[in-house]
Amino acid sequence: MKRKATITVETERLVVISGSQGAAATLWCEGCQAEVTMLGLDEATALAGLSNRAIFQLAENGAIHFVETAAGKAMFCVRSLRQQTQARATRLLNEERKD
Ligand SMILES: [Zn+2]
C-alpha cells in the first residue's frame, strides 16, 4: 500500500507541472460524463509512462478518453489515463508481493 501511495503522489506532481505549462485544461469528457482534466499528448505520455503510439492505440480502443480541440490538438482524459496507470501499477505490486 505504501508503494501505491507513492505512485499516486508522483502522478499528481506531473499533472501540476503540466498545468503550469498550459498543456492541461478542464474539459467535458464524454467517456466520464463529467468535467475532467485533459492533458496534451506529451503530458499524457509522461503521466501514463507510455509511448505516443501506445496512447493513441489505447485512445482508439476506448481505453483512454480523448477530445480534439478546435485547434485540432488531441487532449487526453486524466481520469482514464489514471485507470490505465493504476492497472499497470497494481499488476506490478501483485508481481512483487510475496505473501
Ligand atoms: Zn474520461
Question: How would you describe what is shown here?
Answer:
With 99 residues, this protein is α+β, with helices and mostly antiparallel strands. It has one domain. It is elongated and about 50 Å long. The two termini are 14 Å apart. The relative contact order is 0.18. The structure holds zinc ion (ZN). The site of zinc ion has 8 residues, from α4.
Distance between the termini: 14 Å
Q: Got a strand count?
A: 4
- List low-confidence stretches: 17-21
**What sequence of helices (H) and strands (E) makes up the elements?**
HEEHHEEH
Strand content: 15-25%
The strand line-up of the biggest sheet is 1-2-4-3
Helix content: 55-70%
| Hetero groups | zinc ion
- Round the Cα radius of gyration to an integer and report it: 14 Å
The biggest beta sheet reads:
4 strands, antiparallel
Total of domains? 1
User: Residue-averaged pLDDT, rounded?
Assistant: 80
Number of helices: 4
Apparent shape = elongated
* Main structural class: alpha+beta
Write the layout of secondary structure elements.
Elements: H1 2-20, E1 24-29, E2 34-39, H2 41-48, H3 52-61, E3 66-68, E4 74-77, H4 78-96
Antiparallel strand pairs: 1-2, 2-4, 3-4
The structure holds zinc ion.
Essential attributes:
99 residues, four-stranded antiparallel beta sheet, 19% strand, binds zinc ion
